[in-house]
Amino acid sequence: MVVELRVRLTVTENEVENLKKENAAQEAELTAVNTRGKMRKKSKVAFSAGLTDLGYVKAGSDDLNLLFSRIITNVGQAYNSTTGFFTAPVRGVYYFRFTVRDHLASHWMNIRMFKNGQGIMWLDDYETDDYNTYLSSGLTVELEVGDVVNMVLPAGCRIIDNSNNFSTFSGFLLFPL
């Protein structure tokens, strides 16, 4: 009888250990599912914004950080229309695109894109024909969490926008890393 009770106790102890292992595995899986869900939510990032309704925007003697304040789309809230900065919520590869317009008559139009305060793109044009001119480009950038991207109008330059969104800034997460 004692031997039989010991065997039963051993079997029961083994079953309890197996149940503990299964429980730990299920907890780990639940944690992983929750983490994937949070990552999926964070990785929904896309924005587009128009510059202004005010017409000409001109930089004085210093460069002007552009505030694209007319939000068209801001999924994930990573673009701040008050500061003009896009802040990466997840590590990943992002695509940014911009278009700016001016009415050129013998002057320069310039635009710059910055990442963490360092210029990563500079476009310019000089026209004498007194017609509307656009600068437009895009680029793929690898960003870490907290990296910022913004557009700058160099000193002495100007662009134009109104409710037709001639000048826009957009970006979205291609994929997280």
From TrEMBL:
<protein>
    <recommendedName>
        <fullName>C1q domain-containing protein</fullName>
    </recommendedName>
</protein>
<dbReference type="Pfam" id="PF00386">
    <property type="entry name" value="C1q"/>
</dbReference>
<dbReference type="InterPro" id="IPR008983">
    <property type="entry name" value="Tumour_necrosis_fac-like_dom"/>
</dbReference>
<dbReference type="InterPro" id="IPR050392">
    <property type="entry name" value="Collagen/C1q_domain"/>
</dbReference>
<feature type="domain" description="C1q">
    <location>
        <begin position="40"/>
        <end position="177"/>
    </location>
</feature>
<feature type="coiled-coil region">
    <location>
        <begin position="2"/>
        <end position="36"/>
    </location>
</feature>
<dbReference type="InterPro" id="IPR001073">
    <property type="entry name" value="C1q_dom"/>
</dbReference>
<dbReference type="GO" id="GO:0005581">
    <property type="term" value="C:collagen trimer"/>
</dbReference>
<keyword id="KW-0175">Coiled coil</keyword>
<keyword id="KW-0964">Secreted</keyword>
<keyword id="KW-0272">Extracellular matrix</keyword>
